[in-house]
Every structure is written in structure tokens, then in C-alpha cells.
């Protein structure tokens, strides 16, 4: 099997790059579809739209409907075709970005990814997570290229709620845990190749940066200021985690996140990263990880007010049948849980979900 490393063509991060770095977008094309949601339009979209015009580009506004679904992708593709769009610029969070990548793939045009939060590692990857119109996980959609441009304005990200940065830290903390499992099982990475040395090296560095800087960056974000620790965490959440998960691979943590979409209830109010946090603890429990490692993750999650119990996940009243639905969805054919170095059944997932809750409740009560 080939070793494959995947990355965007260019990654640019810093304060003010959505004002001073628009030449990077201009290099991709003249007529730009600016895809964003209503909230982000008010926060940053309208200003960016004006900046694009001032930079002699021809922007077209399109409001994202909220779900990265096949129906929404088709709707936006039709709009872009009608407008003869040359570049897609996806401004916002993970689902906006994933939708923008799918639209760009359908049209065979470049995409500029412009995250306004550092809560997921979607910006750099050559895949999208596709959901039903109701928000249930359906599949990963893979592309033959990564984004041409990722433009990360840390001044804008610093104004986002700190809980979103914490969610991104949780998502990024899964990177090394899952990469290590893939290495042990000699499974494929997310682009269908062997894990390259660079992929694991990035995953390891990602974990180091997160543990060293997470709390400092979280406090800076609460004050809406950009510090060196904040810059490092934004890069870890976005670039290191993005390169790490794609080139080093996913395992149980993200499969369990996907499993959580199989049940109804308040759990859906949680962010991607919050659900991945519990998925990571569940993977560590499946592995019977060293207590010191498990404890380090629990302590950091709790310091960032991330979920570590079933109650935190709004699942304290969940019956075993509900938990089994999560396990069954997490273990469907083709899911990344099968990259673990041992077989995992739906019943194993249920046991680990409950074991994490019991461990944390006993030894780390809030």
C-alpha cells in the first residue's frame, strides 16, 4: 500500500488576513460565491463582501441553509452555475465549509476556506461529512484534492465564544489517540493510503501543543485577545489536527461521534467537538489506556468545561437500548471504528460509554 500525505495547497493564518490577504483568493479566480450563514454574515460576512469588492473581485452572496446535506449542496450548485462562479469561498464553521467543498467539487472550481471559529479540523481536509436534512450522519464524501486555500483570521476567531475554541481543542485531542490506533492496526488513513511518518509526527505534535497551551488560549479567548498561545491553539485545532486526522487516520472516537446521531434528544445540542471529547474517552476506555493518560484527558476536558459524563452528554436517562443504537451506528460497515487494533462490537461501545461515566463520576466528580 502507498504512503499518502494530504494537505491544502496554501494555509495562511494571522490577524487581519480577511482584509489584507485577499490577494490569495484573487489568485484563484475573479467571480466568488461567498457562502455563509445569517449569523456569520452579520459578524464578518458583510465586511468581507465589501472587502472583496474593494479588492476588484466580484462576490456573490449565498446564505447557507444550516445542514451539509445532499439537497442543500444541489441547491447551491444550481445557484453557482447560474452565476458562472469561478471560486467558492466558504466562510463559517464546519458544516458551511463541508458544504462549500462539496459544491466546489461538483463545479470543479477552486475553494477558499475561511473559518470563523477554530472548533473543527474541517478546513484543510479533502472530505466532507454529509448529513441528512434532519442532521443524521450519512457518509463521508471524499475528493481528489484538498482546498486550494485556507485563510484563518485569528482576530475574527478571537471574537467567537471560548466554548467553540474548547470544542476545537476536544476535536483536535482525538487526533493522536486515533492516529496511534491506526498505526497499531496498520489500517488505511482517510485518503486510502498507509500512514506516513509525517502524519504521525504531526499528530504527536498536535497533542503536545494542545496540552501546553489549551488553558492559556482558552483564557485569552474569553478576553477576546490574540496571544501566542491562542495562535498556537488555532493552528493546532485547524492545521495540525486537519493534517493529522486525514493523513494519520481516524478510529473509534469519531465513529462514536457519528453513532450519537442515531438517537434523538438533547445530545444534538452539543457541538461536534463536545461529542468527540466523550468519544475519545470512550476509545481510551476501549483500549484500557494507562490511568495517567486517561486522567490527563479528563482533567483537561473538565478545565475546559467539556463533557466527561453521560449526564454532561444529556444521556443520563438513556436506556441500554438507546446506547446500543449508538454502538450499532458507530460499528456500521466502513466506519473508522474498524481501524482499531482489535474488533469492536456495538456491545463493547455500550460498555465503554457506561464505564467512562462510572469512572469519572467516582474519581472526578464536578
UniProtKB/TrEMBL annotation:
Q: Where does NAD(+) bind?
A: 37, 94-98, 116-119, 125, 127, 131
Please list the reactions this protein catalyses: glycerol + NAD(+) = dihydroxyacetone + NADH + H(+)
Q: How is the cofactor bound?
A: Binds 1 zinc ion per subunit.
Give, as one word, the top-level EC class.
Answer: oxidoreductase
Keyword field contains Oxidoreductase: yes
Q: Which positions bind glycerol?
A: 121, 171, 254, 272
Q: What's in the keyword line of the UniProt record?
A: Metal-binding, NAD, Oxidoreductase, Zinc
Against Pfam families, the record matches this protein to:
Fe-ADH
Enzyme Commission designation? 1.1.1.6
Asked if the record carries the keyword Electron transport, the reply is: no
Please list the cofactors this protein needs. Answer: Zn(2+)
Question: InterPro entries this protein is in?
Answer: ADH_Fe/GldA, ADH_Fe_CS, Glycerol_DH
A GO cellular component entry from the record:
cytosol
* Domain of life where this protein originates: Bacteria
Indicate the family of this protein: Belongs to the iron-containing alcohol dehydrogenase family.
Name of the protein this chain belongs to: Glycerol dehydrogenase
Origin species, per record, is: Candidatus Enterococcus testudinis
Amino acid at each position: 500500500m502507498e504512503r499518502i500525505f494530504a494537505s491544502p495547497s496554501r494555509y495562511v493564518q494571522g490577524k487581519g488576513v480577511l482584509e489584507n490577504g485577499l490577494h490569495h483568493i484573487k489568485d484563484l479566480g475573479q467571480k466568488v460565491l461567498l457562502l455563509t450563514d445569517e449569523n456569520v454574515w452579520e459578524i464578518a460576512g458583510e465586511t468581507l463582501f465589501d472587502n472583496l469588492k474593494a479588492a476588484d473581485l466580484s462576490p456573490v452572496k449565498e446564505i447557507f441553509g444550516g445542514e451539509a446535506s445532499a439537497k442543500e449542496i444541489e441547491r447551491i450548485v444550481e445557484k453557482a452555475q447560474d452565476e458562472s462562479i469561478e471560486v467558492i469561498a466558504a466562510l463559517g464553521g464546519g458544516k458551511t465549509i463541508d458544504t462549500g467543498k462539496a459544491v466546489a467539487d461538483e463545479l470543479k472550481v477552486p475553494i477558499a476556506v475561511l473559518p470563523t471559529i477554530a472548533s473543527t479540523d474541517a478546513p484543510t481536509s479533502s472530505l466532507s461529512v454529509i448529513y441528512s436534512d434532519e442532521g443524521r450522519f450519512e457518509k463521508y464524501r471524499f475528493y481528489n484534492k484538498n482546498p486550494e486555500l485556507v485563510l484563518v483570521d485569528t482576530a475574527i476567531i478571537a471574537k467567537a465564544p471560548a466554548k467553540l475554541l474548547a470544542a476545537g481543542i476536544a476535536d483536535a485531542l482525538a487526533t493522536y489517540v486515533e492516529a496511534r490506533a491506526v498505526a497499531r492496526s496498520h489500517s488505511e488513513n482517510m485518503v486510502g493510503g498507509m500512514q506516513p511518518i509525517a502524519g504521525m509526527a504531526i499528530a504527536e505534535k498536535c497533542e503536545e501543543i494542545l496540552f501546553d497551551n489549551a488553558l492559556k488560549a482558552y483564557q485569552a479567548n474569553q478576553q477576546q485577545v490574540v496571544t501566542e498561545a491562542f495562535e498556537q491553539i488555532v493552528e493546532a485545532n485547524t492545521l495540525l489536527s486537519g493534517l493529522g486526522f486525514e493523513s494519520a487516520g481516524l478510529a473509534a472516537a469519531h465513529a462514536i461521534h457519528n453513532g450519537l446521531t442515531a438517537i434523538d434528544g438533547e445530545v444534538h445540542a452539543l457541538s461536534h467537538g463536545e461529542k468527540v471529547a466523550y468519544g475519545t474517552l470512550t476509545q481510551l476506555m476501549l483500549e484500557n489506556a494507562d490511568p495517567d493518560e486517561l486522567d490527563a484527558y479528563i482533567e483537561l476536558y473538565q478545565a475546559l468545561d467539556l463533557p466527561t459524563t453521560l449526564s454532561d452528554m444529556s444521556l443520563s436517562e438513556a436506556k441500554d437500548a438507546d446506547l446500543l443504537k449508538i454502538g450499532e451506528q458507530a460499528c456500521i460497515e466502513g466506519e473508522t471504528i474498524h481501524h482499531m487494533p482489535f474488533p469492536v462490537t456495538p456491545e463493547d461501545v455500550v460498555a465503554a460509554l457506561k464505564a467512562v461515566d462510572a469512572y469519572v463520576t467516582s474519581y472526578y466528580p464536578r
